[in-house]
Amino acid sequence: MSQHPQPKYRIAIHYCTQCNWMLRAAWIAQEILHSFTDDLKEVALVPATGGLYEIWLDDTRLWSRVEDGGFPEAKVIKRRIRDHIDPARDLGHSDRPTASEQSKVE
Question: Which Pfam families has this protein been placed in (predicted)?
Answer without folding.
Answer: Rdx
